[in-house]
Amino acid sequence: MLPVIIGIIELAGYAATAYELYRTATNAYGEVKNYQDNIKKAKDEIKKIMQNLDKEITDKIDRQREKVLLTTLTSGDKQTNTTKSASGRPQVKSNLITAAIKQKIPFRPIISQICEKADHLPMIQLRKQKGKKLKDVIPKSKVDIVAKLLKMTAQELAGANVDEYIIIRLKQLAVNFMFEFMDELLKWRSPLKAEVCFGYDIKTKKYLAPQLASQTRIKRVGSELNPFWPMPYKDKGTIGADIIIPEYRGEPLTLTNIFALVEIKFQNDVIKDSQFQSYNALKLQCAKAKYASKVTSNEGFKLSLLRYPEDAISSEDKKISQSKVKGGKILK
Questions:
Q1: Could you tell me which of 131, 130, 154 has the C-alpha nearest to residue 144?
Q2: Of 269, 264, 270, residue with least CA distance to 311
Q3: Which residues form a coiled coil (predicted)?
Q4: Burial state string for 250-269 with b = 16 or more CB within 10 A and e = fewer than 16
Q5: CA 182 – CA 40 distance, rounded (Å)
Q6: What is residue 121's three-state secondary structure?
Q7: What is the per-residue pLDDT across 141-174, written as a single tens digit (0 to 9) for each?
Q8: What is the model's pTM?
Q9: CA–CA dist 60, 38 (Å, integer)
């Protein structure tokens, strides 16, 4: 059974079904056919989302117009009142976090849809086990699989409780997989790059550009089950951004080719000022790199915090937002 499950994951590779693997591994050993159906359904759903993405930025958009369109989409970002006022979590906010919440970004409808999909993964079985040790609800033969999914060692997993922390990790993993699948569908030229790792040179105190597998594909060094962990860089100070939106998606992702960085926080996830201080340091470094390269002299990138569900837009807002943008212009 184990090789079959790994084979399915390797073939599909995308974790709108990552939690389905967990559920299959723990509760339904014989439901391989159902699991395969779930993978197909997840892919079909993402392809529907891709149609919406194509309406916002086409596959053949030229370099000169791309930055203009990203700026236009940012200006037309339909934010919730909670986002505009930066109310809600965390209760105590630094100026940096407040600004990140209020920051307008392109593709909020797409990011909202992906988060909604991840948030509604079938986690009922896991929630029923809340408060128990994971080692007590997972068969020994499945420990390695689940540990890789959760970015944990088998030893860490043995002592972990089934709580919101575990559920959050599964949701984040599902988001990564879905955006990675979208990237693959666009031949690794998606305007939304998932789990982008920036190394850190302790001697120079500077961040390093993401490692690439090809011109526009992010390098992954993890397993088929969780290709995002471990990260390519492992040194102290390394940071991993949930989403990077490049200025020119047909070119390598470098420190001078970042339009926006989006950090996603599901409910009950911790929002730390230190994390955003690191992002801001990267932003300042990118601004200097752009200035030196004569790319621009205004900002490194837009730093955004998207709290789900507070900062996600509703289905009605998505329609309004999409109807206002056409041909790179905001319609009144």
A1: 154
A2: 264
A3: 25-59
A4: eeebebbbbbbbbbbbbeeb
A5: 15
A6: coil
A7: 666 666 666 777 766 766 666 666 677 887 888 7
A8: 0.79
A9: 32
